[in-house]
Structures are given as C-alpha cells and as structure tokens.
Fold these 2 entries.
Entry 1:
Amino acid sequence: MRRVSLRNLAAHKLRLVLTVFSIMLGTSFVAGSMVFTASISNAFNSLFDNVAPGVSAEVSPSADSAGEGVEDSVVAELRSRKGELGIDRLVTDYSAMVTVAGADGKAISTGGAPSTGSAFIPADEALAPDATTVLPGGRAPKGKGEIAINASAAEKNGLKVGSETKVIVGQGSSKPMTVTVVALLDQPGATSGFVNVQFEAAVARQLMSDGASVGLIDMRAVDGVSPEQLRDRVAAIVDPERYEVRTGDQVRDDAKSTFTDFLNIFQAVLLAFAAIGLVVGTFIIYNTFSMIVAQRNKELALLRAVGASKQQVSRSVLFEAFIVGVVGGAVGLVIGIGLAALLKMLANSGTGLPEGPLTVTPAAVLAALFVGIVVTMISAWVPASRASRVAPVEAMRASTAEDGSNLRRRTLVGAGFGVLALGLIIGGATHVGVGPAVAVGIGAGFAILAAVLGGPALAQPFVGGLGRVLGAPFGKIGSLARTNAVRNPRRTSATAFALTLGLLLVSIIGILGASFKGTADEAVDTGIGAEFIISDTNQQALPTSIVDAVAGTDGVGSMVAFGVVQARYDGSFMTGQAAVGDGLGDLLRLEMLDGASAEVPADGLLVTEAFASKKNWHRGDKLTFTTIGGKDVEVTVAGVFKDTPLVQPWIMGAEAYRDLVPRSLRMTTFVLVSPAPGVTSDELRERLDTATADFLTVQIQDPEEFKGTIAGVIDQMLAVLYAMLGLALAIAILGIVNTLALSVVERKREIGTLRAIGMLRAQVRRSIYLESVLIAVFGAVLGVCIGSVLGWALTRTLAKWGLGDPVMPWSLIGGTVLAAFVVGILAALWPAVRAARTKPLEAIADL
C-alpha cells in the first residue's frame, strides 16, 4: 500500500503540486508570524542588554519621587566615600526628551522610538569605554552650540559632521537652539527611529536639570566587590524613601519589564492573525483533500475490490497526506521566513521598532511542520474515512451527488448555533446577561460555526439565484456555470468560507474605525469652540515656551493651554489636566451637569461624571493632592461635566497646577485659541504661523483639520490590521485558485465532452470565470453580513468607554462586495486557461 501511495503521488504531479501549495498557504502565515515575533523580541532583548553598560550599581529617584532627580549632596557623599564603598568609577547622567531637525529643516520623526538628550562622556571617563564610539572625523562637543548624535539617526536624516541643525531640549521654556554636529556616535542596539543627542556635560546639566540634582548616578565596582555588595553598601547611606539603588542587571531587567506588556500584546495580535491564517488554510487544505479523495473514489474502490481493507485504504491516504504535509510544511516554513523578512523590513521603516537579525527559532520550525503534517492528516482522514465506508461497486459509479440527509442534519445544527449566536450578540449589545464583550465574543464563535455548518444550505439558494441574474446575459454558458457552482454546495461553501472569514474581520475593523472617527468628529463639532487647535505633529508634548509665543501674538483673544498634572491622591498617583488661560467655557464647550459655569477656578477642579461617580466626588468637596516632593495642596471640586473624549477625567485650575507641578516638569499638550474682536481667522492664523515658525513640531489647525489628523491616526493604526488581514485574504484568494484548478482536473472528461460537441475555448473560460465570481461573491456577502452584525454589537459594548453610536462604512462594505467580482475573475484566470486548453479526445479517453 505504501508503494501504491508513492506511485500515486508521482503519477499525478499537478495534483501533488496543488496539494503542497494549499498546505504551504496554511503554514506560511503561522511560521512567518512566529519568526517575525521572535525577531522583534530578540531585537528588544539585545537593545535592553545594552542599557546601562558597565554599571555595577545605580542610584535613581524612587517611584514616589520620580522627576525630582538625585540631589548633588548624594553625589558628593558617594564621591567622598568611593574607597570605603568599593566604587571604582562614578558618573552622573542627565537626560531629557529632545526634538531634532533633519537636513530638510523638519523635525525628525522617530516613529514612536525615544528621542533623548544626554551628557557626552569621554571614553576615559565612561564606565564601559566601548559602549559608545565616536566615529572617525568627530570630536567631543564643547559649549552650547555643539552636539554629538547617534550615527543611525544622522544617516537616515541627512546629517553629518559639520551639519547645522536645530534642537529643542525637553519641555522647558527655551526656544529651539541652533547647533552644529561635531561627532557621529556608534551605539549598539539603536532602534530604527531612535535619536540620541549628546551635549558637553556642563551644558547638559544646564539644559536638563534644575542645577541642584542629577538624573541618575551610575557606579562601577572595584575588583573584588560584587554588584550586589556595592548596591547594599550604597543603599545603606541614601534615603530609601527618595532613592532606589539597583544593580546593573536589575536596571536592565526593569527596562525590559516596561516593554513586556507591549511585547505580549504585540505577540498576541500577530498570533491571532496567524490563527486566522491557519483557520483559512485549514479550510483550503480540507477542501483540497475532499476533492482529491472524491476524484480517487474509483481508484480506492478498485483497491477495496482486489482485497484492500478499509483500514489499509485509510492508512494509504494518510501516508500520502503525511508525505505532502512534510513537504508543504517545509515549503511553508521557507515562504514564512520570507514573509517575516518582508514584515520586518516594513516594520523598521519609521515605526521605532528595534533592528536586529531575522531569528528562526526551533518553535517556528516545529510549528510549521506540525501544522503542515497534523492539519493535513486530519483534513485527509475525514474524506478518506468517508470514502472507505462506501461499498466498492457503488464507489465505482460516476455519481458525486451530495448526501441530502447529511446536509439536512448539518443545516439544522448550524441553525441552532445561529440562534445561539444571535441571542448572545443581541444580549451583549444591549448589556443583558454576562459581560457584553464576552457575550459578543462567544456569539462570534457560534456565528462562525453556524456559517461553517449552514454554509452549504445557504450556498444553494444564494448562488443559484445570483447565478440566474449574472448568468442571464451569457445564456447556456451562464446556466452551466451556475450548475457547476451549486452541484456540490459543501465544496462551494468551504471554498467561499476562507474569503468569508477574512471579509468578516475587515467589516468588524471597518465599523470600529468608522465609529471611532464618528465619535471623534462629533466630539470636536460639539465640544471645540476655539478657532484653532495648536498641537505637536508627533502627538507629544509642546515646549511650554509655546504658550508665551502664542499669548504674545497680536490678535489673540481667548487662549487656554492644557497641561499634564501628576500628583498623589488617596495613596496613589493620578493623572489629569490643567487649564491655564482665560475663556475655557467658550473654547471648550463642556456640558455641565452640576455647577453653574464651565470655567475652572484657579484653585478648583472640574471632573467628568464617570470619574466623579468612581471616586465619589461631589461639587464642593475639598480634595487633598500631594506633590512629588511631598507638599499637600487642597483643591475644591467646582463642578461635574458630561464625559467627553477631548479631555482627561478632570481639569484643574492654573493656581493649583503651579502648586502641584514644579516648573521643570510642566508640559503643554495642546492650546486652544480664538481671535480677538475685529481680527479674522485668516489674519490670526498668519500671525500664529509667524510666531511659532521657530518651533519644529508645532501645527496650527482649525477644527476640520484637527478632525482630519485624528482620522489619520486612526487610519494609521487600522492600516497595520488591514495589512495583516490582506495576507489572510491573499491566502483565501489563492485557495479559490487552488480549488478551481482541482475542479478543472476533476471535470476533465466533462470539459472534454463539452469541447467535443462544439463548446469554444472562450466559452469554457467564461464559464469558469462566472463560477469563480459566484463563489467569491457568496463568500464576500456572507462575511460582510456576519461582520456587520458583530461590528455593530462590539461597538455598542464599548459605549461605556466613550465610543459613540455605531457607524456603518457603507463605501467599504459596497466596495468589498464589488471587489469580490474582481477577486473571482482574478482567481479564475489560470484555472480557466487550463480548462480551455483541455484536448477533447484525450479528456474523453482519460479514465
């Protein structure tokens, strides 16, 4: 039987290639996702392994005093006791966020990676002399007008030694400085968007500290003193409530832990898409083997007739499945590695993700082979088992009719799952029963099962009806295409389901994206009364000096700047906003629920309805906030307003803000501005453009432009999801190609007969095109319908987080269905050409 299996594989090379191809589609996405995730994870690990090079122990502000720095007195004491403590070398660190202009004069976009400023430390003073290398042609920066910059950022943005550029340091009051690049730095582990600008140590202290403290103290232990010993000795002489002492390994581990959640989510998203690809691929593999076994019914029946048992027939098919599963898994692994390399190249193009070599882990190899072999053998076993139960004489007949009773049972079970799905989805959307999101999620699973089981029953009337409409202009050719598409509804449904699943997810994401945009648009339309919104192009904080620049602009009427407040309340840190300026009630239309005015008092606070309920705050309550330095500030709740996504849960007045947040830590997130009486919007905008021209990342927008920016951010986030879904859809389309190609092989005699009685090649191609279009449109409509219901319900479950009413992206939905026509034609190109080339006499003679 093994020899029969091997000879059968060798005798049907096209069928073998198409089978391997279907397995490759199912495994490549899984392998690619795992390789890509492992590559990014290892790049992050490599990056963090280069954090704090040469550091044995480090003193930093504790979590409760973050932002204060380490006082100079601590530095002095540690220097004076170096020998006693076992310190070989000690360096202080200053750091701040910076914005740097590239050669084009525009701010360098980091793609989310850090852009930091620090002190230049010569190699003979550094704890690890080889951690940062000055490339040939460079020298140490001197004075306020010189900088060194990491080579990766300089090369990507057209900077070199001798280039003149601009730098904004931190969120302080200074305007952009004109500086000259005097050195390029080779720094291991730099990410694709990472920027590091280094100043002379004295300049860094002036720009990045309050003059009485440093950011960190890094120490290297003398020989014979372990990092743990040095840590314990230093910890014994510093204030444990204000400072934290860690070993270098602890610093690196803590740095890694800050990105653990991100990496876990990142990996979960990729593996979720890999699972989608696997499900799609599984249906393709199952469909392929169902067709192959159906084509071999006579062959298997003949084996039964000459003495082979049911078990031997099943085992022979499983052996063939094992062989092609190994080959398909190996090919899928290679394709997956290439896919991961492509994703990695795209990810390193301005996303801020770290760069590193492609990492092929044993887990990825085993996963590809496991999926290829196991999924293939399961997919082959089901139809093989079904075929082995058919009596040999009956199997030798030409009939391939569906088992009507089995189809009815399957449809009834699918209908049951559909009813359960609808109940859970409606319950989740109306917040009845279990957690809304959980209910919708379970309902989605049942809906997919209902589509799988009930798909064949739906395919017959839908494809039949659509076939009559689309096939009418083509006469008998259209009728033949419709008949071919509905003759095996199980196969039609399985082929279309791959597309159904992909477009289901596209619809859900499209509805969520449209709903987010709709919510943002409504919030801006109803909540923004200002003529202009001034913000940062990189969605970061603005330099506080922008407030003075805008306030001093001729023609400015009302102006409110929004800052960030971080303070301790009731034992934990809280984050909110501060409003500094006049005219808050006019510039930001807050719907007051308790309180006469939307103007926040200088020593007061306005709070959203949801947050007030959560904290049990009421108008008139006296709240005590504690600054980072331990000072208590009393703030009065002046009013409660309706929740809005435009602002944080609470807004604090200017006086309380200044008492709570030290000047060095203040930052401005955005500014709302309206013109003075008699000044037109165009005049004010021109003057504001002039006043902010020196700031690298400032953008001035009216409400419509601001809505466009928000929509752009949402589109950018969704683009990643759509790109991943695009791969799943590509697999689905190739699956249709594969199924049609096998269908052509299966119907070789039928096509030859039609050609023999006068059917033209063009007519053969046309019938295949129509059949493919019918299958593709069926899958698209089914996916869009289920996805629209799920997207609507999911949006309703997110209402408590501020998401508004569901918005249906009709253009996306309509475009998706229309695209299915194109997909159907494209998927049928090769199978149609192959069918048209069928030689009538050879096909008729072929047994």
Entry 2:
Amino acid sequence: MGSLIWFSQFLCLSFILLQFRVRSSSPSQSSLDSPQHLCHPEERSALLDFKSTTNMVEGCLGTPIIQTWNESIDCCLWEGITCDKPKDHVIGLDLSRNCLEANLTTNSSLFRLEKLQSLNLSHNNFSFPNISFGFHRWKSLTYLNLSGTRFHFFLLFEISMLSKLISLALVSQILNFAELGYMDGSLLFEISLLSKFVSLDLSHNDGLLLDNIKFQMLVHNLTELRFLILDSVNMPLVVPSSLLNLTSSLEYLSLSDCNLQGNFFTSIFNLTNLTYLRLSSNKLIGPLPYNISGLSFLYKLQMDNNFITGHVPSWLFSLPFLSHLDLRNNRLTGPIDHVEMPNLILQEVYLSNNEISGSIPSPFFHLVNLTIVDFSSNNLSGTMTANMLSKLVNLEILDLSNNSLLSLSNDGTVVNYSFPNLWFLKFSSCNIHKFPSFLRKAERLRELDISKNKISGQIHKWEMEGMSLCRLNLSYNFLTGIDPFGLGNVVTIDLRSNLLQGSLPILSTTWDSMILLFISGNNLTSEIPLSYCNLTFLRILDLANNSLGGKIPECLGKLSNLTSLDLRMNKFHGRIPNSFVNGSQLRTLNLNGNQLEGILPRSLVNCSKLEILDVGNNNLNDTFPHWLGVLQSLKVLILRSNQFHGAINNSMPVFYFPHLRIIDVAQNDFMGLLPSNYFKILKGMRVVAPADKVKLEYIGYVLGHNNVKCVLVRICSMSHHDINYKDSVKVVVKRLELELVRILTIFTTIDFSGNQFHGEIPEELGELNLLKVLNLSHNSLTGQIPSSLGKLAELESLDLSSNNLEGRIPEQLTNLIFLSVLNLSHNEFEGHIPEGRQFSTFSNDSYIGNSGLCGFPLTKKCHNEEERGALPSQFDEEDDSTALFEWKFALAGYGCGLVLGLSLGYIAFTIGKPWWVVKKVEKYQQKLVGRCNRRHKKRKTQKPNQRS
C-alpha cells in the first residue's frame, strides 16, 4: 500500500515537472526578446572565424557588411546571409563589392559551410595562394561568383568537382597566368570537364592564347552553355569554322578585342538562339551576308572597330527583336540598302566613321522607336527635312556631323514641328546655310552643334525662342551677330571664328550660370563689360584673336572658379590685374600679344593650380619672377619680348619649378651668367621614370560632372560627353614661330635668346635629358660648347648662333640622333666639323661666320690631321704601337659595323644594359683620358725649347 502511494506521488510529481517543462519551453514574450542562435553553432562559428581573417582594402569608402555581424544576433539575420528556413543551415553568402581582402587557404573557415548553395565574393581582393582547396566540400553549391578576385586556374580543377554547379562567374581580372606557368592544354581540359556549365566568362586575360585546338577543346563538351564571354582573350589563330562547334543553345556571345581575323559572319549567324552578339575591336574583314535566316531572337549586335566592307544590308533593320546595332569605325561603303520591313523595336543605331554614301532611305524614318542615331563622319548626301525628323517622335540623340554633302531644310513652310524627346542634335560640317529655327519647339533640346557650316548673317531671338539649350556651338560659320537674349540659361556657348563685329555681347541676367564662353577669332573691338564679372560659375573665358581694348577688369581676378582666361592677341593696355584671390582655380592665363605694362602681379602666387602663364609680346618691365617657383603645377612660363631685366637668381630653392617644361625668356634685357643652379632644379626636363612608363598626354583637363556646381547639374546634364579642353601657346621651334594647339607634356624647350647673358654655357644643361629645343643665340656667351650637351638624347633643335663661343665643335654632338636643326653661325669656332649621323644633313647656313671651321659642308678643306681632330696626333711612346694597332682595327670594321654598332651602342648606353658592354667601353674611355692627361702633364713640364 505504501509503495502504491509512493508511486502515485511520483506520477504526480512527474506530471508537474512535465507541465513546468512544457510551459518553460513555450515562447513567452520574454523568451522572444532573448538572444536566439537559430543557425547551427558550427556554421555561426565558421562565419565569425572568417570575419576575423578579413581586412578592409585601404582607401575604400563605406563599411563592409561583414563588420555589422553581431554575435548576439541570430546569424541567419546577418546581412549577406541566406538560411534554409526549415533546417536553419547557411545556404547563401553574398559579400560582393565589400572592399574586403584576405587569403583563402585550404583551411579557410568558409569551407566549413558545407550546406552552401550560393557564394558571391566578386569584386573584392581575395586570393587563393594554395594549389589545393576545399571546394569539394561544397557538394550542394550551384552558384559561384569569383569575378574580379585574385584567383588562378588551379581552382578550376576544384571547381570541376562541383557537380551541381549551374552558374559560374569568373569575370574580369583573372590573374597570374604567366607567373604560374600554367598555360598548357591541361588548363582548358579542366574547364571542358565542367560540362554542365551554363555561363563561362574568361574575359580580360591577356596571357591566355587560344588556337583552334584549344578553342574546340574548351567548347566541345559544354553542351548546355548559354553564356560565353571571352573578351580580351588572344585568339588570332581561331578560324571561322571553329565557331560551328558552339552549342546551338548559346544565347550570349562576347568576343571583343580577341584579335579575331577573317570573315566569321556566316559561322556566327548560324547560332540561331543568340540574343546578344559582340565582336567589337577585332580584325574582321569582308562584307556582311546579303541574306540570313537566323538571329530571330537577337536584340543587341556590336561589330564596331573592325574592317567590315560592303553595303549596309537591309536585314539589319528587319530583325524582329533587334534594339541595338553598332557598326561604327569600319569600312562600309555605298548606300544603305532599301529597308522594306522596318523593325519597330530598333532603338539605337551607330554607323559613324565609315564611307557610307547616298541618302538615308525614307523607310528609315518610320523606325519610330529610335532613340539614338549616329551617322557622323560618312559621305551621306541629300537633304534632311524637318518633316522627316519629326516622325522620329522618340528620338533623343541625332548626330549627322561631318557629312559635307548633306544639307538641312526648314521645308519652306512655317510648321510647328514637335520633337518631344530630342535633347542632343549635331550637324557639324554639313552643308547648312540657315539656323534651324524649326527646332524652336524642341523644348527638351539641351545641346545643339551646327559648327563648321555656312550660316551667315544674324541669329534673332525669335529663331531660338522655346529652346532650353545648355550648349550651343556655332563656331566656324559666317555669323555677324547673335541676340544674346534668345539664349536663355545656356551653360556653354561657342562663337569662335565667325565675323562678329562691334561690342562683346552684353550678357543678360539669365546667363549667370555660364560655364564656358568662347568668342575668339572675330572682329570685336569693345572693352570687356563689367557684367562678365557676374559669371560666378564661369570656368573658361576665351576672347583671343579680336581687337578688344581698354583695361582688363580687376574683378576678373576674383572669379574663383575660373580655370582658363585667354585674352591673347588683342589690344589691352594698362597693368595686369593684381586681384587673383586665394583658392583660385586658374590653370591657364594667356595674355600674349597685347600692350600691357608694369610688373607681373604678385597675387599670382594665390593661383596654386596655375599650369600655363604666357605674357609674351607685351611691354612688361620687371625682374625675373623667381617667386613663381612656389607654384608646383607650373609647366609653361613664357616671358618673351618684354622688358624684363637683371640677372636670374642662381640660388633658388631646390623645390622651385619642379614641373616646368617650357621656359621662354627670349628678347628681353636679362644679363649676367646663365643660372647653372637654376637648370639643376628643372626636374620636369629630366627622366624620372622608365621610357616605357612615360605617358603621351596633353596639358589640359576634362570638364565634367566633378567640375560643375550641383546647381548647374540640375540645370543641364553634361553626361553625354564631357568637354576635353586643351591649352595652346606660341613658341619658337626650329626658327619658326609655331602655335602648339595641343601641348604634349613631354615637349620641353629652353629659349634664352636675344638677351645679354655672358660667360660660359653651364655643364648642367646636359643633365636635362628630356630637352627638345635649346636656344641660347644672340647673347654674349664665351668659352667652348660643353661636351655634356652630347647627352641631350631627345634634342631636336640647337641654336647657339651670334655669340662669342670658340674652340672645336665637340664630337659628342654627333650622338644627338634626333637633331634636325643646328645653328652655330657667327661665333669663333675652329677646326674640323664633326662628321656622321645628323651632321651630314646640315647646310652651310649652320656654320657661316666661323672663319676657322673647315670640312663638310663648307668648301674649306682641312689639310692635316691636327685640324681634323679625327685621330690622336701624339701619344706617349710606350702607347704608340698599341694605339696604331687599335685604330687599324677600328677603321677596318668601320664600314660593316657602323649601322649595327651605332644602334646597339645607343640602346646599350640608353638603358644601361648589357652592363658588361657599358663597363668595357667606359674602362677603355678612362684609359684614353689617362693617356691624354699624362701627355698634357708631360708637355706642360717641358721647357719651351724642348717642346719646340
């Protein structure tokens, strides 16, 4: 009985405990608020371990989502994580574009996420330093994106184990082919094992070379491939027939910049399921097929930048789904074939830079969905009427420029044509005689370029009313006037090279948003109106080559946003404004060819971004502006033909003028010694990088979104094409005054001619090995030409004429293989003129006025070896036989080895390799110098009668 009571009590207690457990396990409000870790602990731990091994790429903005992972929150709720809801396994990880960097080794914690189905690590700085990885542990992975990451192709063997993979992206910067030496067929064999591939992208791999065999190996087993991207993979040996092995299921094919050669069109156009085809920037030749039966699903076709010939076939405009056609920069000729069944889906057509002739077929204007049409730079003819254009109601961009036989007509009637979406229209270099006033109802028109035409007379306000133009280019016409009140909120206007007369246009209050104003090359005669100082957003003001007069307004120097002020070749007088403000954005100040007086304004030191200062051909009276040396961006300094005077400081700080490339102080009153220390600090004229690293760039800048105030971006977008503004100056090169319309940053010149400098030419000039033009003529220089000038390997023009220089012309000058102009006339040189190389091309004019010179090209012959200086006349007795032996062999090999020797020698001494050659020659040179020194010392110690 007692045991029964005990058992009943036990059951009651168990029931109570069970109820308590059930209640405690039910989700109360308090329990819902408490931390829960629903994802599996081992997966949560793996993610936290991975977080601890990653770093943020230096210089990146923003916070990587991995940094937001919080241990107290369920990892299934972390950003970038996807979990399988029923089982709470981590099945997806997306860390794309997160500025992360890490080495993913075999033991990486990522491989512990064994249920992973989708992984996206694209556009980070992940690298895979090991050959073996843990990819095989991801047995369920179906989506993998490693685009833009630092992996190599040892990964492909691991990836090939992923039997369930249906999407793979290995895009863009795939590295280390050459470094790893893994470029044999086994690489492609590994890829070919991935027979379930739907997408394969091996683009931008300069080290990958595909021939026919490798290409066929690559695509043979990829029977389910739908996307193939091989852009910038080198494929010059792949023949057209190889493309027949591509699966018919292929939808997306991109083979741009692959060095493909031949006619691939028939093979590719048989891929009937293609929706995207890109063959840009190859060497494809031949005409397009006259007829095709496939490509019924194609929506984008790009074959620009090739050598395609023949007519533009009509079927291109009849493909039922084609929306984008790009055939620009080819060799298409003849008229466009007649379009019988126009495709009403076509939106963008690019046929620029071909040789297409004839008129545009009228059915073309029934392609009502066209938004962009670019037929520029062809041979189109006929008349484009307003009625034709008005049918393209969706047209946004139309470029028909550079078709000299094409004209534009207003239809001869007053019709209110409507162009509801047109915002960019370019008819430059066509055959237009009148301003297209029919566009005045194009309310969305933002950019109109009708430059280089035959438009004459005045443009009235009524012709432009209704337009909301931001950019207007009327340059290179025959305009005599324009009503500025019809221009509205125009941001840039170009009126260069017209026949405008009288006063500068008075800017209305609506022009306060002006950014660029070009009115150079006209016949304007007024002063600059003070209203121009109200253009607070103005970046470029170009009033050059007019007859403007008066004083330059002081307030122009206060336009802090102004980057270029070009007032050259006018009649301005008085002083240059001394009002340049702190923080000025000025990069170019060109005042050449005026009547300005006084000194250079010291406020120019506030223009810390100044690159070009040209005040030549004025009446300025000042000393050398050494204080400009603090402007670290200054590249061009032209003071020519003024009244600058005094000596040039020879003790300027080493950080002065670090980027100066052009200095012209000719035709002034400078005096004293040439500043040797000044030449030492001109780092911009010396090689500071390997020759293959020097970029051919122009001095100037691009004016785009970053250069425009936000308020102006709202008024007028500059997204179609930025304005690439290049500076220009006049310099004297090779005896001629030339205008450098574009200034290459590698062009360097020093012109100190026409002054009163005396003393010797500094040896330091020979260190400026990027110098192309050196002019020290018309001074009072004495002494000899320093042999160091023979090191100016880039020198093209050397003018030392009209000085008091003496001695022999150094043989080292024959090393100047690019020298095309040499003027040593009117000095006191003597001896034999050096022979060979460029010296055989110079005429008598280079040497006249030097009575002591002899040899070619002068008629005066040299009569003995002492005059020629060709061979040593005296040696120490102990060296006579050796010297004679050496010269016999030198002369014997001269004829057959000249060209090869000069070429290899120049290369060797330019790059310093091979070092043993340079060292050998330098050792022999030191030996000859030693002989000469001993001989000179011996003769100096002899008595006069002994020497005689």
